[in-house]
Amino acid sequence: MARSLALLAFLLASLPAEAQETLLLRQPTLSETHVVFAHGGDLWVAGRSGGDARRLTSTPAVESDPHLSPDGRTVAFTSNRAGIPAVYTVPLDSGDPTRLTWYPAGAEARGWTPDGDRVLYATSRETAPVGYNRLWTVSTAGGPSEMIPAPWGNDAAYSPDGERLIVDRMTRWDDEWRAYRGGQNTPLTILDLESLAETRLPNERTTDVHPVWHGDTIYFLSDRDWTMNVWSFEPATGALRQRTDFDGADVKWLSAGPDALVMEREGRLHLFDPATDRVETLSISIRGDFPWAAIQWEDVTNAVQAVSLSPTGQRAVMSARGEVFTVPVEHGDARNLTRSPDAADRVPLWSPKGNQIAWFSDAGGEGYGLMLAGQDGLGEPRRIDIGESVMAWEPAWSPDGTHLAFVDDDVRVRVVDLESGRVRTVDVGGTNIERGRMGLT
After folding, report:
1. How many CA atoms lie within 13 Å of 8's alpha carbon, on the beta-carbon side?
2. Do 166 and 151 touch, CB atoms closer than 8 A?
3. Pairing of strands 345-350, 356-361
4. Which of 154, 370, 372, 388 has the fewest beta carbons closer than 10 A?
């Protein structure tokens, strides 16, 4: 069965002629005049009022974690262009990036010292037996790095006088685990760099991340009200206060500029005025060459998932890069049943009679639905709405071919009547860790 599957990925090839607001803008950083952010694996810069953005980096690698220098002229960032994540700087106006870290362990940019002479970064170098991040700095002129005397550190920001750090100790393996209250949650800690005394911010197992220092106040993101919002802490008085009241979508990123904060939410960038708590949403448009979005052939042989054998044993169905294929065991050609580069088609399953194939797809942009199609790939597939279920795992067809069961994102075991399209819940699992491991038959 081992043979090459070729998939022609029809992707967005160009942007509209007229400027339109661009979404999926990430990881913003702010100066008096500009905002720099990540989009599509590159770094971009726009004016503080929004408008058209200009590309700062252009490589097949992934550039991330941009941090503007205190004078607003240079951006420190992370790139894997050399094979591992390393810290680089690039002038905001023009010029080639300069690599600052060379250790075999990966390094991720976290900010600057207040004088702008050194870049702060996190790395697991020289840790054992299991790697964990600590904080280091490196000169913008290059040379050896210096470790900050903090036993653990994944993210941090300097106080304006450079005498203290606000430190987030923990590297989280799941940044998107909403309402998480487990062991990855540790209090943000103020570290005095001279005495090494530590002061912990109030924390009741909430997720507190992206700490920044603005004036005498520490700002950070917290899900204390079950949605990630901006909070502040006054080291002098111990006052803790919620500063934004978003409901629903989380704030994903927070960074401090000289006179304001900038944050990422719902794919857009927003300025936050600490004096008034006023939020201003920026409208930014991106134009540029996107080679990764061009039409191209992709060999998906090594990306095969969710294999199901036909009842006759002559062909197998599988998904790869969001497409559904059937492949002969011995003689014949691979067959692409979906040809839908704008949709994610996943977990295909052959029917007991062998005449149909089922899979789940987000085609149409209205969430996932159950798709049914002939195994020959001819004709339009039938779509069955799966209701409030957002995603599906472990599909299992009943032996008589009249029903199909699956586990959804709320760990509910759901059964679909394929004739009527009715979906019902027959049981509920215990925790979301069980998704994909319940062994439905």
Report:
1. 6
2. no
3. antiparallel
4. 388
Tell me whether residue 241 is exposed, middle or buried, using C-beta atoms within 10 angstroms of its C-beta: 0 to 12, 13 to 18, 19 or more. Answer: exposed
Cα separation, 274 vs 246, whole angstroms = 16
Alpha-carbon gap, residue 393 to 370, rounded angstroms: 12
Helices (H) and strands (E) in the chain, counts: 0, 39
Residues 6 or more apart whose CB falls under 8 angstroms from that of 196 comprise 149
Distances (CA, A) of 24 to 28, 38, 264, 347, 402: 11, 9, 9, 27, 41
Among the listed ranges 191-200, 262-271, 389-398, 429-438, which one has the minimum average pLDDT value?
A: 429-438
Task: Indicate the average pLDDT of the chain.
Answer: 91
Task: Please tell me the distance from the alpha carbon of residue 27 to that of residue 82, in angstroms, as a whole number.
Answer: 22
* Cβ atoms within 10 Å of 87's Cβ, excluding its own: 28
CB atoms within 10 A of CB 311: 11
Query: How many residues would you count in the chain?
Result: 441
Q: Is the pTM of this model over 0.85?
A: no
Residue 217 and residue 166: Cα distance in Å, rounded? Answer: 11
Confidence of residue 19 (pLDDT cuts 50, 70, 90): low
Q: What DSSP letter does each residue of 296-363 carry, written as one string? A: EEEE-GGGEEEEEE-TTSSEEEEEETTEEEEEESSSS--EES---TTS-EEEEEE-TTSSEEEEEE-T
Residue 407 β-bridge partners: 393, 413
Please confirm whether the linkage preceding 129 is cis (ω < 30° from 0).
yes
Task: Give the torsion through C-alpha atoms of 131, 134, 140, 144, to 10 deg.
Answer: -70
- β-strands 164-168, 229-233 pairing: unpaired
What is the residue type of 223? D
Give the closest residue to 217 by CA, choosing from 177, 175, 274: 274
Q: Give tens-digit pLDDT for 384-436.
A: 999 999 889 999 999 999 999 999 999 999 999 999 999 999 999 888 788 88
Sheet order of strands, 164-168 included:
155-158, 164-168, 189-192, 198-200
Pairing of strands 323-328, 198-200: unpaired
223 touches 179 (CB < 8 A): yes
In order of 166, 185, 197, 215, 264, the CA distances from 235 in angstroms are 10, 21, 14, 11, 25
